[in-house]
């Protein structure tokens, strides 16, 4: 399991998925950057 921005998300075989919008990323860092940029307010 990957831990991103204080939340735990299940790691998928093909990468990491945003729990808010479903966008897929190949790395945990990619998802972390997305969360910081796109979902700062949790939306």
UniProtKB/TrEMBL annotation:
Gene3D superfamilies: Classic Zinc Finger. It comes from Bittarella massiliensis (ex Durand et al. 2017). Transmembrane segments: none annotated. This is C2H2-type domain-containing protein. The lineage of its organism: Bacteria, Bacillati, Bacillota, Clostridia, Eubacteriales. Residues 16-43 form the C2H2-type domain. It comes from the Bacteria. It holds the Pfam family zf-C2H2_4.
């Amino acid at each position: 399991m990957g831990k991103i921005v204080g939340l735990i998300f299940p790691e998928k075989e093909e990468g990491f998925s945003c729990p808010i919008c479903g966008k897929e990323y190949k790395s945990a860092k990619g998802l972390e950057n997305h969360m910081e940029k796109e979902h700062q307010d949790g939306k």
